[in-house]
Write a structure and sequence with these properties.
By secondary structure, the protein is mainly beta. It has 9 helices and 54 strands. One of its GO terms (cellular component) is external side of plasma membrane. Its main location: membrane.
């Protein structure tokens, strides 16, 4: 109830449009038809509920004496009221009938509302089915004992009645009610369209308003509005707002305007009358040209924006843009606005000059003042060049870094970079290029670049690579393995390395004054030379490094070592033969006999060749009876011994027992054929070696050899040297101390060999 009263107070009334709102009547009970003898209470209300002051009541257009806000009635007729702040209410027809059957309609009823129809019999004790009719036609299958509901009624003039069947003990009959016209009140009056201002100036905004009002009882009803120019809807169409704002209206918009209002359910829709709106036009004035960027200073490549505007002027305005000294129009636009812009993309140096614009809305063109446009040229990508005194940059040279950009407004600041580090900067106040001098060190190899900046954006050059050639430092020669005593047959690594120097580096290796070899290190660093040690490796070793900027030599490294002597080889050979003789006793006996016979012959005794045969027999026995797999397993190389004939030494001269070992210088004379070595028993600690040679004696040999005498010059002689190593001779001692201890005793034996034994 309180909410309904609040809505009554706040409901919009006709005072918004300058008219006093209507008063309205409420019936209790809320029916317009009653049985005769019943009473109905009428209440007069307005927007300021409860009503202020006296209330005027009217019955069938006659003023009644009642002045209170409520009255009770029991006579049929039309009733209406009026308060001091309202206009007359809509009349209400209340009817009191003496019929047995009446049709009642709820009150009040507005357009689009639902209506409750009730068919009521006087003092009806037993409810019965009723049938309802509209304008004499049955309302569908409307059989009800109570009431029916009509949906969305309108301001139509239809008649309704109802019937009921009655019966008693003797007969049955039908009762029919009196026809009823439903009193439907107007939900809202047709809207009124207003424009503000009513005569707008062209280009100015206009507000359109569609005005109507709802009765206080229906103030919660939601309405929608739509505005039209001729038959074209404006804005977004239907809206809950009763106002439409037109931002700018033009002379061609002069036309008839109207609006519509409707309920959300579309049950009630009403339209306003048409209103004519005339738009006035104003000539252009105060034309102005604006340059963007501000100030008229542009960078080449930017976009130039020319904005032409007018202080006054309505309607369609034609704008045009011009540059002084040219006849061609730069651009033209026609639009409904006080300003327009022309965009010139990517301006060039030739676009500099003075500009102006013109505006016209049919009253003649109006020109603006001249505006100056100036351009600055950004930097082009600079080019870096490196000027060196020679084709190849060397440490200590002074090179010139030259950076130059071909285009760009001065002043220009140049910066020079090595990799990402700044070397320095130089300014060119009048444009052009700039230089930077750099004294080269070994660390200056790498990529160089430069940067040019005149305040319009820095530009970087491409990278230029500078290779600073560093002369090689003095190389260092090292021997590997170090700290051990090398022997013949070892492979010695000579490592030569220069700590500094640009690649490629060529290394040379020297032994005394002889060149051993050369190796190229294409990526720098050091390199190695492997030397297989021979009979003459002792001496001074050195190396040299060269990368085209001068040769650097290392310090001399001295290498001393001892070559294993023949006496030790003989001792090893004796050990091998002794081991074989200990297994083969017969072979040992034959060897002793052979030795004995040979000594006798050397003292001048005659012989018949028996000792030679015995020697041949002993050698044949060894070759034939020792298993071949034993010889192969214990020998490094199979003995290839194939002389055709072995002559006995001359018996006319005694056999020399001189045990002096030949010197190193005698080795080439004695080794006319390549010696063959065989390690017979490598598993024992006492190593035994044998050496077999076939020598063609010469005069020089006969003169220098103190050990034997030659009977025939062309004879082939086989020597066997047997020597046993000392137990304390080990590999470690040999490498560290050399061959310091050698046996002074050596055995030589001249063995004439028969071809039969050798063939075997």
């Amino acid at each position: 109830m309180l909410l309904w009263l609040l809505l009554l107070i706040l409901a919009p009334g006709r005072e918004q449009s300058g008219l006093a709102p209507k008063a309205f009547l409420l019936l209790t009970p809320p029916w317009s038809t009653h049985f005769k003898g019943q009473k109905v209470t009428l209440k007069c209300r307005d927007s300021r509920y409860p009503a202020w002051g006296d209330v005027s009541w009217y019955y069938n257009k006659n003023l009644m004496r009642e002045e209170s806000g409520e009255i009770q009635i029991k006579k049929s007729g039309y009733y209406k009221c009026k308060t001091q702040v309202s206009s007359f209410s809509d009349p209400v027809h209340v009817e009191f009938l003496s019929d047995w059957l009446i049709l009642q309609a709820s009150h009040p009823v507005f357009e689009g509302d639902k209506v409750l129809l009730r068919c009521l019999g006087k003092e009806e004790k037993i409810p019965s089915e009723k049938i309802y009719y509209k304008d004499g036609k049955k309302l569908g299958s409307t059989y009800s004992t109570e009431a029916i509901i009509l949906n969305s009624v309108s301001l139509e003039n239809s008649k309704y009645h109802c019937t009921v069947s009655r019966k008693d003990f003797w007969s049955s009959w039908k009762e029919t009610s009196k026809p009823l016209r439903i009193q439907v009140q107007e939900l809202f009056p047709p809207p009124v369209l207003t424009a503000s201002p009513s005569q707008p100036i062209e280009g100015s905004p206009v507000a359109l308003k569609c005005e109507t009002w709802l009765p206080p009882q229906k103030s919660d009803t939601q309405l929608q509005f739509c505005f039209f120019r001729e038959d074209q809807a404006l804005g977004s169409g239907w809206s809950s707002s009763s106002e439409l704002q037109i931002s700018a209206i033009w002379s061609e918009d002069s036309s008839s305007y109207w609006c519509q209002a409707k309920t959300v359910t579309h049950s009630v829709i009403k339209r306003s009358l048409k209103s004519q709106i005339l738009v006035q036009r104003v000539p252009v004035s105060d034309v102005n040209l604006e340059i963007q960027p501000s100030g008229g200073q542009l960078i080449e490549g930017e976009n130039l924006v020319l904005i032409c505007s007018v202080a006054k002027g309505t309607g369609t305005i034609t704008f045009s843009w011009h540059r002084e000294g040219t006849i061609r129009i730069l651009g033209r636009k026609t639009q409904r606005s006080l300003s327009a812009e022309l965009r010139i993309p990517t301006v060039k140096e030739s676009d500099a000059g003075r500009y102006y614009c013109a505006a016209d809305n049919i009253h003649g063109p109006i020109l603006s003042k001249l505006t100056m446009v100036t351009l600055r040229i950004p930097m082009s990508r600079p080019v870096l060049t490196i000027r060196a005194p020679k084709a190849q940059a060397v440490v200590g040279d002074v090179v010139e870094l030259r950076c130059e950009a071909w285009r760009g407004s001065p002043p220009i600041l140049y910066q020079f970079y090595h990799e990402d580090a700044t070397l320095g900067r130089s300014s060119a106040p009048s444009g052009g290029g700039a230089s930077f001098n750099l004294s080269l060190t070994a660390e200056h190899s790498g990529n160089y670049s430069c940067e040019a900046d005149n305040g319009l954006g820095a530009q970087h050059s491409d990278r230029v690579t500078l290779n600073v050639t560093v002369p090689v430092s003095r190389p260092v020669l090292t021997l590997n393995p170090a700290g051990t005593q090398p022997v013949v047959g070892d492979v010695l690594e000579l490592r030569c390395e220069a700590q500094r120097g640009s690649p490629p580096i060529l290394y040379w290796f020297y032994h005394d004054n002889a060149t051993l070899g050369k190796i190229l290190a294409p990526f720098g660093g050091g390199t190695s030379f492997n030397l297989s040690l021979t009979a003459q490796p002792s001496g001074n070793y050195s190396c040299a490094a060269d990368n085209g900027l001068g040769i650097q030599c290392s310090e001399v490294v001295m290498l001393n070592f001892t070559v294993p002597s023949r006496s030790k080889i003989i001792l090893i050979t004796v050990g091998v033969i002794s081991g074989l003789l200990s297994i083969l006793g017969l072979t040992a006996t034959a060897a002793l006999v052979c030795k004995f016979k040979t000594q006798r012959k050397s003292r001048g005794l005659s012989t018949t060749g028996t000792p030679g045969l015995l020697c041949n027999a002993a050698l044949a026995f060894i070759l034939c009876h020792i298993p071949s797999d034993t010889l192969l397993k214990n020998s490094r190389r199979l003995l290839d011994y194939s002389p055709n004939e072995c002559q006995e030494p001359s018996l006319s001269k005694p056999f020399s027992t001189d045990t002096q070992e030949p010197t190193h210088s005698e080795l080439p004379a004695l080794m006319e054929l390549q010696p063959v070595y065989s390690n017979v028993n490598p598993g024992d600690s006492d190593l035994v070696y044998s050496q077999v040679r076939s020598t063609q004696p010469t005069k020089e040999h006969l003169a220098n050899s103190p050990r034997m005498h030659w009977e025939h010059e062309g004879s082939t002689v086989i020597y066997s040297e047997v020597k046993k190593t000392h137990p304390d001779d080990s590999a470690g001692q040999a490498s560290s101390g050399g061959w310091a201890h050698e046996d002074a005793t050596e055995s030589y034996e001249n063995v004439p060999c028969a071809s039969m034994a050798l063939d075997h």
